[in-house]
Amino acid sequence: MLLRWFFELRYLFGRVPWDTGVTPPEVTAFLDHTPRGRALDLVCGTGTNAVEMGRRGWEVTAIDFSSQAVQAARRRAAAARLLITVVQGDVSDLHGVHGPFDFVLDIGCFHTLTREGQARYAAHVARRTLPGSTFMLYTFLGGRNQGSELPTEDSLRRLFAPAFALTSVDHGTDGRHASAWFTFLRTG
Q1: Looking at the domain assignment, is residue 69 inside a domain?
Q2: Is residue 17 in some structural domain?
Q3: Nearest Cα to 106, choosing from 122, 127, 85?
Q4: Among 13, 163, 175, 182, whose Cα sits 20 to 30 Å from the Cα of 99?
């Protein structure tokens, strides 16, 4: 609950340094080489990536638990004259989000979840995708973070198996944190 208020206040006062307004090159490269389909943007923030996918012809559903972020994403989609479904909800409980989706994107949410939340999240993502779907995840790596379990490459492989196969990892850093882009392919 405290985390939710933190984000509500940050969005309310416009102090969201993680929301750059620019779709990352890893995502645009994927979109450049992938046929359009249905996309799910997990923790969409102000809708930057949802709008980019919509502009490229994807049918987009976006979700965030911050009401301020959801309102901003809806305004951004409306300004772009795109029909994007933006819902307020919890990414570890996607009961109100209906798939299947061909592409699922998470930039920076997964590492904020508890271990139990991560397990629920993985199960929900698997249930809303079909074989051949792509799941892209950008996350911090390693250790513990204020009660959340920061994943490792091995823990992600185990958590998303057998539904997903890890097809690529691009390691990097984000400030003081080790981070990586993970691309998974829905297998069976």
Answers
A1: yes
A2: no
A3: 122
A4: 182
Assess if residue 148 is contained within a domain: yes
For every one of its 188 residues, what pLDDT tens digit does the chain have, with 9 covering 90 and above?
A: 666 665 665 656 666 656 777 899 999 999 999 999 999 999 998 999 999 999 999 999 999 988 888 999 999 999 999 999 999 999 999 988 999 999 999 998 898 888 899 999 999 999 999 999 999 999 999 855 555 578 989 999 999 999 999 999 999 877 777 899 999 999 97
Domains contained in the chain, number: 1
For the domain that residue 171 is a member of, what is the CATH number?
A: 3.40.50.150
**Separation between Cα atoms, residue 29 and residue 129, nearest integer Å:** 21
Kindly tell me the number of DSSP H helices and DSSP E strands found in the chain. 6, 9
Q: What is the pTM of this model?
A: 0.88
Neighbours of 117 (CB within 10 A): 18
> What residue numbers bound the domain in which 136 lies?
2-12+25-186
Q: How many residues would you count in the chain?
A: 188
Domain membership of residue 18 (yes or no) is: no
